[in-house]
Design brief:
Blueprint: H1 15-33, E1 38-40, E2 50-55, E3 58-70, E4 74-79, E5 88-95, E6 97-103, E7 109-115, H2 116-129, E8 138-145, H3 146-153
Antiparallel strand pairs: 1-2, 2-3, 3-6, 4-5, 5-8, 6-7
C-alpha cells in the first residue's frame, strides 16, 4: 500500500478490466462491511491511478486524478479504510474543497470540484495512489475501534 501508482496508459492498460474489478470489489466490501463509498486501484493490487466511487445513485470514476487546487479551509473528519478492514477510525484534517483534473471512464478529460464529504473522500483515495494511508494523517494520535465510533455517531 506504500507503493506509488503510475498513470493509466490508455493504449496498453486494460482499463475496463481494472474498472470491473474495482466495481465488483467495492460492491462486495459494501455488502460485507456495511460501509464505504470508494476504492482505489492499489487496494486491490493494481498500482494504477484509478478510483472507483459508488454510493446510492452516484457513481464517479477518476482516472489519473491530480489535485490542482485546495481550499484553505479545512475540516476534521472521522476516517477509516477498507485496507484496515474498517476496524478502527481516526480523526483527519481535510480540505473543504478540492479541484481535480482527471479522465472519466470514456477517456474525457475533466476538471471537477468536490466539496465536503466528496472532497474528503477523494483526498483519501488520491492519497492511496501516492502510497499514503489515512493513519498517516491522524491529527491527535488517537485511534478508536469502529464499534466505539458507531456508538458516538448514534
Amino acid at each position: 500500500m506504500r507503493k506509488k501508482s503510475t498513470p493509466v496508459d490508455f493504449e496498453h492498460d486494460d482499463l475496463q478490466t481494472y474498472l470491473d474489478h474495482l466495481k465488483d470489489t467495492l460492491h462486495h466490501l459494501q455488502e460485507a462491511k456495511k460501509i464505504g463509498r470508494a476504492i482505489a486501484a492499489p487496494q486491490i493490487g493494481i498500482f494504477k491511478k484509478i478510483i472507483y466511487m459508488e454510493s446510492g445513485q452516484q457513481r464517479i470514476i477518476l482516472i489519473n486524478p491530480n489535485i490542482i487546487d485546495k481550499s484553505k479551509e479545512m475540516f476534521e473528519v472521522w476516517d477509516s479504510c477498507f485496507s484496515a478492514d474498517v476496524a478502527f477510525m481516526g480523526k483527519t484534517l481535510r480540505h473543504r474543497e478540492i479541484t481535480v483534473e482527471h479522465f472519466d471512464e470514456k477517456l474525457n478529460k475533466k476538471t471537477s470540484i468536490f466539496q465536503d464529504d466528496l472532497s474528503e473522500l477523494f483526498q483519501h483515495e488520491i492519497d492511496h495512489l501516492n502510497g499514503i494511508l489515512f493513519v498517516d494523517r491522524i491529527v491527535d494520535n488517537q485511534i478508536i475501534m469502529r464499534s466505539e465510533w458507531e456508538k458516538l455517531s448514534a
